[in-house]
From TrEMBL:
GO terms for molecular function: hydrolase activity, hydrolyzing N-glycosyl compounds. Belongs to the LOG family. This is Cytokinin riboside 5'-monophosphate phosphoribohydrolase. Pfam families: Lysine_decarbox. GO terms for biological process: cytokinin biosynthetic process. One of its GO terms (cellular component) is cytosol. Keywords: Cytokinin biosynthesis, Hydrolase. Its EC number is 3.2.2.n1. InterPro entries: LOG, LOG_fam. It is an enzyme of class 3 (hydrolase).
Length: 190
C-alpha cells in the first residue's frame, strides 16, 4: 500500500485517546512511507493525523470542496491539495488516490464516508482494505448493527470480512497490508 485514505472527525472528541491514536496512526503511516490522503483540514482528528505525518517527513494529500475552504480551515503545509466542486467529487477523488481506507472516530461525515466505501466493496466496485480504528470500543455499536444485518440476511456472511477492526494503528496497517477480499458472494438472495 502506497496511500491510505483516512476518514476522521473534524473535531477531536472528548476522549483524549482519540487524539493519541490519531498521532500514533500518523507516525505509523510516515514510518511505513505510506502517504496520507484525507479531507484537507487542519482541525480535529483530521488535522492531528496530517500534522503527525508531516512532522515525520511523510507526504499528505488533501482533497477539499471549495465550499468548505473556510469552515474546515485548509491545512497550509500539505504536500498536495486537490480542490473539488463538492462532496461527491471529494470522496471519488480520495478513493481514486488511495490503496485502502481507515476510519478514526468521527461523526456523520465519517460514518457516511466509511459506509460508502464499504458499500463499494460490497458491490465489488473495489477490493481495497477497509480498517476501523476501534479506539476504546468506538466502533462496537456499528459492528453490532452490521452483525444484525448479517443475521437478518441483508448482508452476506462473507461480507463481514470487508473490513478490519483493530485497536492499534500498527497492527491495523499490518492486517490491511495482508488483506484478501472475501470470496465472491451473491449479494442478492432472490
Amino acid at each position: 500500500m502506497k496511500r491510505i485514505c483516512v476518514f476522521a472527525g473534524s473535531n477531536r472528541g472528548r476522549n483524549q485517546k482519540y487524539t493519541e491514536m490519531a498521532i500514533n496512526l500518523g507516525k505509523a503511516l510516515a514510518k511505513k512511507e505510506i502517504e496520507l490522503v484525507y479531507g484537507g483540514s487542519s482541525i480535529g482528528l483530521m488535522g492531528v493525523v496530517a500534522d503527525e505525518v508531516l512532522n515525520h517527513h511523510g507526504k499528505v494529500i488533501g482533497v477539499i470542496p471549495s465550499g468548505l475552504l473556510h469552515g474546515e480551515i485548509v491545512h497550509q503545509n500539505l504536500t498536495e491539495l486537490y480542490q473539488v466542486k463538492g462532496m461527491h467529487e471529494r470522496k471519488a477523488k480520495m478513493a481514486e488516490l488511495s490503496d485502502g481506507f481507515i476510519a478514526l472516530p468521527g461523526g456523520y461525515g465519517t460514518f457516511e464516508e466509511i459506509f460508502e466505501v464499504l458499500c463499494w466493496g460490497h458491490l465489488g466496485i473495489h477490493q481495497k482494505p477497509i480498517g476501523l480504528l476501534n479506539i476504546d470500543g468506538y466502533y462496537q455499536p456499528l459492528m453490532q448493527m452490521v452483525h444484525n444485518a448479517i443475521e437478518e440476511e441483508f448482508i452476506p456472511k462473507t461480507h463481514d470480512e470487508l473490513f478490519i477492526l483493530e485497536e492499534d494503528p500498527e497492527r491495523l496497517l499490518e492486517k490491511m497490508n495482508h488483506y484478501v477480499p472475501p470470496a465472491d458472494a451473491n449479494k442478492w438472495r432472490e
